[in-house]
């Protein structure tokens, strides 16, 4: 089954248990939530993801499950984030952050 092909390679599935990806991705997302969006969020897990290899690095697209505090209640939010991981160095910020779904708990 082909996921998609472009000039630089194609889409590849992300391993949700990749500890390096989690160590880099989670702080990026939580810092974005806190600093840019002004919300208190906790990471719950990776639902799905893929990356695409380009000439300067990899572009990751991840669907994440976040627990967001709203007043005294918590809401589970499903978000899609995209970030660029250069071949040299670590990613420093998100390219996009989008709410997909909200689940009340």
CATH class, please?
Alpha Beta
Element-level helix/strand string? EHEEEE
Mean pLDDT, to the nearest integer, reads 82
Distance between the termini: 36 Å
| CATH fold naming | Nuclear Transport Factor 2, Chain: A
Q: Measured on Cα atoms, how large is the radius of gyration? A: 14 Å
How many structural domains in the coordinates?
Answer: 1
Percent of residues in β-strands: over 45%
- What is the tally of beta strands? 5
Oligomer: single chain
Structural class given helices, strands, pairing? alpha+beta
Which keywords apply here?
Nuclear Transport Factor 2, Chain: A; 5 strands; 105 residues; alpha+beta; 1 helix; 5-stranded antiparallel sheet; globular
Helix/strand layout:
Elements: E1 11-13, H1 19-37, E2 40-53, E3 57-70, E4 73-86, E5 94-104
Antiparallel strand pairs: 1-2, 2-3, 3-4, 4-5
Description:
- The protein has 105 residues and is of the alpha+beta class.
- The protein has one domain (12-104): Roll (Nuclear Transport Factor 2, Chain: A), CATH 3.10.450.
- It has one helix at 19-37, and strands spanning 11-13, 40-53, 57-70, 73-86, 94-104.
- The protein has a five-stranded antiparallel β-sheet.
- A hairpin with a 3-residue loop joins strand 2 (40-53) and strand 3 (57-70).
- The chain is globular.
Summarize the structure.
The protein is of the alpha+beta class. Helix content is 18%, strand content 53%. The chain is globular.
């Amino acid at each position: 089954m082909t996921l998609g092909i472009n000039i630089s390679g194609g889409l590849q599935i992300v391993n949700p248990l990749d500890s390096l990806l989690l160590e880099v991705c989670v702080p990026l997302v939580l810092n974005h939530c806190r600093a840019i969006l002004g919300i208190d969020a906790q990471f719950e897990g990776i639902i799905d993801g893929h990356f695409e290899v380009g000439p300067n690095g990899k572009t990751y697209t991840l669907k994440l499950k976040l627990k967001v505090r709203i007043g005294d209640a918590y809401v589970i939010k499903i978000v899609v984030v995209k970030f660029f991981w250069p071949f040299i160095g670590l990613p420093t910020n998100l390219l996009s952050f989008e709410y997909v779904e909200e689940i009340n708990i």
